[in-house]
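Q: I'm a student working through a structural biology exercise. My instructor gave each of us a protein and asked us to get a predicted structure, then write a short paragraph describing it. Mine is TM2 domain-containing protein. I'm not confident about reading structure output yet, so if you can add a plain explanation after the tokens, that would really help. Here is the sequence I was given:
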Amino acid sequence: MSTEIETQPQCTDPGSDGQQATTDQFPPGLPVNPQGANPNGHLSPPLHGAHLPAQPRSLPQYGYQQPQYGYPQYVSPTNSPDSQKLMWEYEGNSHNHAAMCPEPTSRIRVSLTEAYLLMIVLGIFGAHHFYLKRPRWGLLYCFTFGLLGAGWLIDIFRLPVLVSRCKNEASHPEPSLAKKKRLDDVYVLWFPGGLIGLHHFYLNNIKLGILYLCTFGICGIGWLIDAFLMPYHVKIANSDNQDTTKKRFTTTCILAISPTGLLGAHHYYLNRFGFGRLYNFTFGIFGIGYIVDWFRFPVLLKRSNTARTMCHSSHKHLDDAYLLWFPLGFLGFHHFYLNRRGWGLLYMFTFGFLGIGWLVDLCRMRTLVENCNRDIDERVHLTGSNIVGGHVPLNYGQTGPCPPGYSNQHPGIYPTQQNGYGSVPGMNDQPPSYEAASVPTKVKWSSARIFSQVHL
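A: Happy to help. First, here is the predicted structure for TM2 domain-containing protein. I'll explain a few features afterward.
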């Protein structure tokens, strides 16, 4: 009795998303139609009523495994040398294959001998820098003829370092290493290109670079100072956390010691505009203040950086007062500085009480500075303003600028408080309660009584 073999629907791979497993999806090298499979390449389930073997048949090394019941399932090859590769191709995990087996990175082969050959023959045009993947340096050498030959001579001794650095950057590419400034590169740019600020442009000190370009390295003095300050420049340029508002020691030193200090450039840089203008008109207070600032500029720098976080920065300092006392104390400049304008005018017209008051102030200068700072603290405590010389409304109906924490929406009326009683932080005590007399109500009541008595 002949029995027709019913064509079964194509089975789907259990791990796929319902896609039919056709013969095109079989891994290469596997038998497309194993023994006992239907024309579509799938093993047929046993017919109804057929005798099932007690033990499963011997399975092939790889291919489709016929379970005891149900549809066949794919078994990955275990002993084949290309088993893992076939599994990846079958499951569509080619991206995992690329991730687990990355392609070998191409290494840049740099030879020290070739670098020396290029440097000796064409080094004045930067050929060795182009060879070492330093195109900017190559262009700089090309247009400046090897930094007028000085850079070419220095490269004779430092070329092994450049070759080693190129190999390290090729084997361990990191963006942070590429942006890192090198001390040897800075010194090569400093001599002789530092006279026009090339090393400052390299270190991203654009303002100093422009100043050096316009003043020829600040008459050469700033260029000489940089020879000793170069490690500090490189350290600041490579620091991760750069505070742009913080004043730098190197910049202050260059501006104070160089001839620009005679014009008060370091005072302008440290936001001491009053002293900067004074140095402009007195040529560094006749050169005395300029020389004194050579030794006290670290103190001025620390004072300027500290003033950013202080509650108020209008305190007077003893060194500034003595600097104004000699030689301008005969005209009362130290009194103007200490907010004693009346005494300043008196000294100006009497030439310091004929020099007697000028000598007395030498002994009592510390007391004058302490009294001035005490007055400033009291004003800050009362008004909350750190601006010396400003006026604050104190009486009813007086207008003027309001201190912090107050608002004056109606001119002519005393400003109302916004953030609690008192302007100093932490003083939130409320004023004593009182009952103000309602003047308009009394006037209205008395007028009504008079009107009623007249009609009666």
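A: Here are two points you could use in your paragraph. The chain is about 50% helix and 0% strand. The mean pLDDT is 75. It's a good idea to check both against the output above yourself.
Q: Great, thank you!
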